[in-house]
Design goal:
Serum Albumin, Chain A, Domain 1; 8 helices; 3 strands; globular; DNA-binding
Length: about 210
DNA sequence: TTAGGGTTACTA
DNA sequence: TAGTAACCCTAA
């Protein structure tokens, strides 16, 4: 049984300021174990701060710190943003944040205790190993079967099928047309050759 | 579920 | 500061 929810807690901000106030931790539970989590931040504006301050005042932090998890009030915040007419794209600032409670949530919130926690080692950047797996997957499944590729090569990874699709698009942009000034990934030449070979077979259309 | 447009954080 | 990478959002 899988339960996905948006839970919340205070977030320690690396830098000060009002825009550091809103923080959230999203994760899902599979077989009673936290298997995926993601820090999420939202734009901070005066009305947002007041809105969430009200929510925090209504919450019982002591209960949460003793092990209880609350359904996220920021779900309402998101609805609040959507009501303001924003249409597409990522909302608000994205800042790296430090969770002061990530360790005790994910090391102690085990309901069955027989499964490894799957945490995100590389919070956002793809590793060369991940790219290698993606290339293997595209070699086997081709382009467009991201869910199957995910199940086969990224079953326990935080990377979703959408992430895989987006990463492949970025790889093709980087290596197919060779128009980029630089790439941040330091891939082995044989892997780059393989990407180019696959790019020729499955070209990025735009 | 996937493709592609769009936004934002990060890096050189 | 421009370009790249990550990922969100919506249409189909």
């Amino acid at each position: 049984m899988e339960q996905t929810g948006l839970f919340w807690g205070p977030v320690q901000e690396e830098d000060q300021g009002l825009d550091g106030f809103l923080g959230d931790l999203q994760f899902s539970l599979a077989s009673g174990t936290a298997c995926e989590h993601q820090m999420a931040t939202y734009p901070a504006r005066d009305d947002d701060a007041l809105f969430v301050l009200q929510l925090l005042e209504d919450a019982d932090l002591d209960e949460w710190l003793s092990g209880g998890l609350h359904q996220s009030p920021l779900g309402d915040t998101l609805s609040h943003h959507q009501m303001l007419g924003r249409k597409s794209g990522r909302r608000g600032m994205r800042k790296r944040r430090i969770s002061p409670w990530g360790t005790f949530v994910f090391e102690e919130t085990t309901l069955e205790g027989n499964r490894e926690y799957i945490t995100r080692k590389n919070n956002s950047r793809w590793t060369a190993k991940e790219v290698e797996l993606l290339v293997q997957g595209v070699s086997k499944f081709g382009v467009g079967r991201w869910t199957e590729l995910k199940k086969k090569y990224f079953k326990t990874s935080i990377r979703t099928s959408v992430h895989l699709k987006d990463k492949w698009r970025n790889l093709l942009r980087a290596y197919q047309e060779n128009v980029q000034k630089y790439t941040l990934l330091d891939l082995e030449p044989p892997l780059v050759q393989q990407i180019r070979k696959l790019a020729a077979k499955h070209p990025y259309l735009k």
